[in-house]
Structure formats: structure tokens, C-alpha cells
Design brief:
The chain is an alpha/beta fold. Helices cover about 35% and strands about 15% of the residues.
């Protein structure tokens, strides 16, 4: 496996553990360094058998597979000295310590470089290592409040609500793992290490589906609409009733998705729930008709009532069968049990038991995040007991040597004309992907220097070209700010793949490319003649990534759609919302926000294998399978305890008070998290309504038992105060708190400004657009976001004449034949 010579020191607490687990899945030797008594993550529930024990935490088990455990007391000089020796022999250090903690222990940047100049130091924090909020107190809830997703998730008449499995630091961890792969790729050339810095606040902005920039580009910001998306008076509904639960339907319009809505309305008509006139509405132009008033909102609501009546008459299984037969953008809202025991994951043997024995090895865990033809991911060992490998690692230290000299000796250099500031320069990617999950990955690689040629077709534009926010609210395929963010820095080429005259051009592009990526439904590329076996005959060392919702095999392989459908069928919808209401679901195409990191990691892993061996390979990336790692604690609650997890609103297993509380003003909210007994004392001394309860609820268990009463008291205090004042008052007392920020607040957030999150770029048609920057910060070779807004066919002539060397006559011939759109 490509990372099988890599040694990783993991200092993560309860936050960010997934980063090193991804590296372990890729073959790295991960040593989890724990304090006496175990890492903080071991205190987080739920617990195996409901026995509160640091060896039974399912939240910790979820992200500790494949690691070895070593206990070190870093408060002692002996412990710190041992850590220095361990770091000297390591390739990567992963940590999620509060800013300044490692510095105080003697492991600041200068010290780490002195110990190991080749070290990749991966740091995950709530807000970033520098900037006005760097030293703010944080928790997972605070990051999703500060970064945008919380504001647009949940029911409009209730507080914003999080996914019941904390997501913020999972986004940060996956982002950090991708950054680690970039830094390792660069180190193989330069022989030098660097820091990888990820802010969880910035990492979660991806889960706003571009809404974060709405205010900046002059469009309407999204609002909460449980089970859907609201922009102004228009509410796009994504969750619908079924006879035995709920389903998610992508009921949207335009040239790309309108035909699917037409198929849906044909089904509703055939089942007797609408008339022919309703069926035959202009579903391509319907969005514009709603926007300009030609179609009244009341009529749109009537149409949705027709659909609702239809779905409510069917079971989820019947609706899924109809979706498969009629190619509907519809998926059942599955529980974790439905997903785990369903036919697709069963057929693909996705759930696995780890190697080893004991309780932690007796249950099934989420399995391979991708399937590699040449370097398949292997089963890893079970989560370790506290300090299980301390003696083993100490014995190894006696014979391990520092890695820096080996790395310098093996560095392959950059070659003539290369730019050392662009770590992925020289990688050439042919990008057939669309929407978010695929293009988000290739955009990430382009940020670090890869050359990406993006193939589009004008007759079937990318779905993201039809999605808000639009520059100045102009619903034009070339004005989508989301599309701009996902494709800036790429070469934009329009080809009609159905035109036989384009075949030679595609073949030449494949010969040029190191990597071909596609996100069509399975068998589509084969129907074009562009499947892996065909393309590798053109380039034997080709790497090809196919990414779709459910994977290339299995009974649901042909199931096509977007990340909202994958989120529904994987369990995210069912775990988001309030226990006394239908599932709200996370905002938008949620698994599309997870998959880009895994896609980028898979590509970089395959490139490293090819660097070593010269061998290409095929990668099958099922978006649902990769995303279920973000639900791993809930999966284990089911497979270990036999209990189906339920949505919990904003309640937490080990923090109380913990939630989203009203502030003065309309739809103004503040997220507050009391992490431990110390936070409680600070909170009680700051909030007058809680002061009388300070002693009575000094222990966590007491607070968890009385959480409703404590929430009510805290809400009485917050609702009369300005949100920013509450935030500043509590942060000054060391208590995690954040205004629940929507686009209006995000574009003015001083921390995101410090991190350079919003970038203004010229638009080829005039004016400007605003895009989001890369969320990974590398200290020596930072990402660079350059160019202009990605418009249809912008670079077609340049690609053909400059990159492929075609003559003007060849270019003209392709135009005449219609191969170029």
C-alpha cells in the first residue's frame, strides 16, 4: 500500500481522530499517544453495552481502528523527551490541541523543525492557529454555528439544529488528511516537511453549498426550511411522506434537472394524483417562471401537494422501485439500520470486522472508503486498549532512526522549469465530472498546481450552473457562484461526447492525462467507449476514478442523483432534526460535501503508488460509502448495541447545557456548549439565571439529567441580549459560544477574512465574482486560487491548440462537425 512505510504520531483528543484513521486505512503505522487514563475521546458516548468505561466508547472506537496506543505523560520531562524521540522517527504529526498548548510543552514550530525537518505537522483547531478568533473556546457545535451550516438546517419555527452525530471536526479531519497527502507528495520532491493547518470553522463552510458567498455576490441567502431549501418566498422541498416513513426527492427545475422532474410528474399523473396540465408544465423553465411571477407561489404549493399525496400512498420500497424503473431523483429516508442491513452495502460487503479479538473486534464498522484495483485497502486492527502498545513502541524507538536524512536522500527533485511553490505541478487531470463531489476534488488538486481540463457539454449543463447563489441574482449558467468556486483554476472545454467526431479528441486528451475522473452513473462511460479497460489501452499507466452515489456494483449501482439522495439513503436525513418531528435532513446535497476530500485523497494515493511502481489503477468511489464514515459512531451504536440511533435535536451525550439559544431580534441565535465541570462553573458565574444552580449541578451527570431545566434558564438569559454581546461575554469567560452565522455574518467574519476565505475574481463577461478559497493551509506551498470565473467553453481554443498542439484547421474541422459545442 502506498503509505505502508509511513509512521504517524497521533495526538488528537476527541476532535479530529478521523484524519489519522484515514492514513491508517491507507497503510500508515499510526501511534496514538494518550495521556494516563486514556485520550479524551474515550469519555464520549455512546458506550458499548451502555457501560461508561474508557475502553467501551463507541465514539472513540469509530475512529481508532488501525492505530496503536502508547501512553505518555506530557506533563513530565520524561514523557516529553520520549515524544521528541518519537517525532524524530515520524513522518507525520497529527494533533488537535488548543492553540498554544504544544508551544507550552516545548513543541513549537521551531522546536519541531529542529527535531525533524522532514515532519509534516497537521494541526486542526476550531478557528485556525492565527487570527482574531484563534484562541476562542470551541466545540463541534460551535464550529458548525460559526461556519454556516447550522443557520440553514432545521425547522424555520425552531432553533437551528445540527446532525446528531457531530460533523464539524470530521470535515476538518478529512480536509486535513487531503492536505497531508499533498504535503507528502511535495516532500517526495523537496525532502522538506511543512505544516498543514485546518480551521474547523472554515472546513464546514463547504456544507453551505455555496450559500456562504450569497451576500458577497449580491444574491439572497438561504434560510432554514426543514427537509428543503428556502430562498425568499420559494421553498424547494426535499423531504416527502411515504406510507412507512419518508423519502427525499430532488424536485427542482432547469435544463439539467427539469427532465427528471418531468419524469416524476409523469409518475404522479400515472398514479392518479395530478391532471395532465399539471404533468405537462414547463419543468425546464419553471424556476424562472416562479422567480418572475408567471407561476404563482400558490400554484407551486398545489403541485407539491399532488406529489405529497402520491408519495404518502406508497411505501419507501415501492417508491424506490419506481425510482429505479423510471429514473426518478428519489431515495428513501433510511435509518442507520436500513442503511447497514440494506441490499447495496450487503452486496458490496461494506461493513467489516477489524483484525484482533475482544469486544472492539466483535462488531462491524464502516469499511473501505474507496476500492482500488491495484492497492486495495486492507482490514485494519481493532481499536487499541489504553497503552496497549507502549512497551512495543518504546522497544522500537531503540532501533528507529530519524527520518529526515532518509527523506532528503530519497527526494527526487523538481526538474527543469518546475515551480516548487506548486506542489502538484506536472499532474494532468482530465475531468469529466459534474455537480460537487467530483469537481470539488479536482478543484482542490488544481489549487495546489495540477493542470485540470474540465469537459462540459452546453446541451446538458452542469447541475451547479443552475444552483444559487448567482452573481447579482442573475439566473444564468455562467453566473453561478457555486460553480465558479468548484471550477476556478481549471481549463474549461466543451465537447459533445455523443458526436462520433469528438472521439479522436477525447483519445488525445486521455493520452495527455495522468488521471481521468468521471462521475456519470455506472456504465455511461462504457457506452461512450471510455471505460477504464478501453482508456488504459491508450495510456497503460492511467489512473481512473469513477465516483457515483452507490458505487459501480450492487443492486443499486444504477441509482443516480445528487448528494441529498445519498444523504437520505445513508442515514444523515434520519439523524437530523427533532425527535418529535419528521426528519429535517442536513442542508442540500450533504454527502457531496464529504466526497471531494475522499476523492482527492484517493487520487493522490494512486499517484504515489504510480510514482513508486509505474502502475496505474482504477478507483471505484461510492459517495455513500465514503460518507458513512461521518456516521461511524451511529453505525456502531447499532452494530454493537443493537439500538437504532435517533435524532436528538442539539442534545449531546456528554455536554450540558449544550444547544442553540434565542437572542434578541428576529431569527437570531447563539450556540453554547458547556464541555466540562470547569465550563459549568464559568457559565454559572457569568449567567445570573444559572448562578443559584452552580453547586447543585457541579457534576456532568447531574447536568445531563436536568438538561431541559438548564436550557430553559439559559434561554431566559440569552433572549433579552444581542447575539454578538452574548458571544463576546461568554468567550471572554472561556466558554465556547458563537453567533449562528448565515452568509450575511460570514462575509464579515474577521476570522474568515484573516484566512482569506473570500476571493474576488474577474468575470469574463464583465464585473466580478466571489469564490471560496482552499480550506487547507500549507505553510511552505500554500494553495493558489487564480484565474477568472469558469464560463462555458472559455478555454476550448487554448486547450486544443496550446496543450494538444492542434492546428487552426483541425480546430475548425471539429467546430464544423459539431464535436465542439
Amino acid at each position: 500500500m502506498p503509505l505502508d512505510t509511513l509512521r504517524v504520531v497521533d495526538l488528537t483528543t476527541e476532535y479530529g481522530m478521523l484524519c489519522a484513521q484515514i492514513l491508517a486505512d491507507l497503510g500508515a503505522d499510526v501511534i496514538q499517544v494518550e495521556p494516563p487514563g486514556g485520550a479524551a475521546g474515550r469519555q464520549v458516548g455512546p458506550f458499548h453495552g451502555d457501560v461508561v468505561d474508557p475502553e467501551r466508547s463507541l465514539a472513540w472506537w469509530a475512529y481508532a481502528r488501525g492505530k496503536r496506543s502508547m501512553v505518555l505523560d506530557l506533563e513530565s520531562e520524561h514523557g516529553r523527551q520520549t515524544l521528541r524521540r518519537l517525532i524524530a522517527a515520524a513522518d507525520v504529526l497529527v494533533e488537535s490541541e488548543p492553540v498554544g498548548r504544544l508551544d507550552a510543552l516545548g513543541f513549537d514550530d521551531a522546536a519541531l523543525e529542529s527535531i525533524n525537518p522532514a515532519l509534516i505537522h497537521v494541526s486542526m483547531t476550531g478557528f485556525g492557529r492565527t487570527g482574531p478568533k484563534a484562541h476562542w473556546a470551541w466545540s463541534d457545535l460551535i464550529t458548525v454555528a460559526a461556519g454556516g451550516p447550522l443557520a440553514i438546517t432545521g425547522d424555520a419555527d425552531r432553533p437551528p439544529v445540527r446532525v446528531s452525530v457531530p460533523q464539524g471536526f470530521l470535515h476538518a479531519a478529512a480536509e486535513a488528511a487531503a492536505g497531508t497527502m499533498v504535503a507528502l507528495y511535495e516532500r517526495a520532491r523537496s525532502g522538506r516537511g511543512q505544516r498543514v493547518d485546518v480551521s474547523a470553522q472554515q472546513a464546514v463552510t463547504i456544507a453551505t453549498q455555496g450559500n456562504v458567498v450569497a451576500e458577497a455576490v449580491g444574491d439572497t441567502q438561504a434560510e432554514r426550511a426543514a427537509g428543503g431549501i428556502r430562498a425568499g418566498d420559494i421553498r424547494i422541498r426535499l423531504t416527502w411522506p411515504a406510507r412507512d416513513g419518508f423519502v427525499s426527492i430532488t424536485h427542482v427545475f432547469g435544463a439539467t434537472m427539469g427532465p427528471a422532474t418531468r419524469r416524476l410528474m409523469e409518475y404522479v399523473y400515472d398514479e392518479g394524483f395530478c391532471d395532465a396540465a399539471t404533468r405537462d408544465k414547463d419543468w425546464i423553465g419553471y424556476g424562472l417562471m416562479l422567480a418572475d411571477g408567471r407561476e404563482p407561489i400558490a400554484e407551486f404549493e398545489r403541485v407539491k401537494d399532488c406529489i405529497s399525496a402520491c408519495t404518502a400512498s406508497k411505501t419507501k420500497a415501492e417508491l424506490l422501485e419506481a425510482a429505479m424503473q423510471r429514473r426518478l431523483l428519489l431515495a428513501p429516508v433510511a435509518s442507520i439500520a436500513d442503511a447497514v442491513d440494506g441490499p447495496q452495502l450487503t452486496a458490496r460487503e461494506y461493513l467489516v470486522r477489524p483484525l484482533g479479538d475482544g469486544p472492539a473486534a466483535s462488531v462491524r464498522y464502516p469499511g473501505r472508503f474507496a476500492r482500488f484495483s491495484a492497492t486495495p485497502l486492507r482490514r485494519t486492527r481493532r481499536p487499541p486498549a489504553i497503552g496497549e502498545h507502549t512497551a512495543e513502541v518504546l522497544a522500537e524507538l531503540e532501533r528507529l532512526t530519524p527520518v529526515a536524512e532518509r527523506v532528503r536522500r530519497e527526494a527526487i527533485g523538481w526538474g527543469a522549469g518546475a515551480d516548487p511553490a506548486r506542489p502538484l505541478q506536472g499532474i494532468r487531470i482530465l475531468d469529466f465530472m459534474w455537480a460537487i463531489a467530483g469537481p470539488g476534488a479536482t478543484k482542490y488538486l488544481a489549487d495546489f498546481g495540477a493542470t485540470v481540463i474540465r469537459i462540459e457539454t452546453a446541451s446538458r449543463p452542469d447541475a451547479c450552473r443552475t444552483v444559487r447563489p448567482f452573481v447579482n441574482g442573475e439566473e444564468n449558467p455562467d453566473q453561478s457562484a457555486l460553480f465558479h468556486t468548484l471550477n476556478v483554476g481549471k481549463k474549461m472545454l466543451t465537447i459533445d461526447l455523443t458526436n462520433e467526431a469528438s472521439r479522436g479528441l477525447v483519445h488525445d486528451l486521455v493520452r495527455w492525462a495522468d488521471v481521468v475522473c468521471e462521475s456519470f452513473s455506472p456504465r455511461a462511460m462504457k457506452s461512450f467507449g471510455y471505460d477504464y479497460e478501453s482508456l488504459r489501452r491508450l495510456r497503460p499507466d492511467l489512473i481512473m476514478l469513477s465516483t457515483c452515489l452507490m458505487g459501480q456494483t450492487g443492486p443499486l449501482a444504477a441509482f443516480a442523483g445528487y448528494g441529498n439522495l445519498s444523504a437520505a439513503i445513508s442515514g444523515f436525513f434520519d439523524l437530523t432534526g427533532w425527535p418529535d418531528r419528521p426528519p429535517a435532513g442536513p442542508y442540500g446535497a450533504y454527502t457531496d460535501y464529504i466526497a471531494p476530500r475522499y476523492n482527492a485523497i484517493a487520487i493522490l494515493d494512486a499517484l504515489e503508488h504510480r510514482r513508486r511502481t509505474g502502475e496505474g489503477q482504477y478507483i471505484d468511489m461510492a459517495q455513500a460509502e465514503a460518507a458513512m464514515h461521518f456516521l461511524a459512531p451511529a453505525v456502531l451504536e447499532y452494530t454493537a448495541n443493537g439500538r437504532v440511533p435517533v435524532r436528538r435535536g442539539n442534545r449531546d451525550f456528554h455536554m450540558a447545557p449544550h444547544g442553540v439559544y434565542p437572542a434578541a431580534g428576529e431569527d437570531r441565535w447563539v450556540a453554547i456548549a458547556c464541555r466540562d465541570d470547569r465550563d459549568w462553573q464559568s457559565l454559572a458565574s457569568t449567567v445570573d439565571t444559572l448562578q443559584p444552580l452552580a453547586a447543585r449541578f457541579a457534576q456532568r451527570e447531574e447536568r445531563l439529567a436536568a438538561v431541559e431545566a438548564l436550557d430553559a434558564r439559559l434561554a431566559d438569559w440569552t433572549r433579552t441580549r444581542d447575539a454578538e454581546t452574548i458571544e463576546q461575554t461568554l468567550q471572554s469567560a472561556g466558554i465556547p459560544a458563537s453567533v449562528v452565522q448565515n452568509s450575511r455574518e460570514l462575509v464579515r467574519d474577521p476570522q474568515l477574512a484573516h484566512l482569506g476565505h473570500f476571493i474576488r475574481l474577474p468575470h469574463p463577461d464583465g464585473g466580478e465574482t466571489v469564490v471560496e478559497s482552499c480550506r487547507t493551509h500549507l505553510s511552505r506551498t500554500p494553495a493558489q486560487c487564480e484565474g477568472s470565473a469558469a464560463t462555458l467553453g472559455r478555454d476550448t481554443y487554448e486547450v486544443l491548440t496550446t496543450i494538444l498542439g492542434y492546428s487552426d484547421e483541425q480546430f475548425a474541422e471539429l467546430l464544423v462537425t459539431g464535436a465542439l459545442e
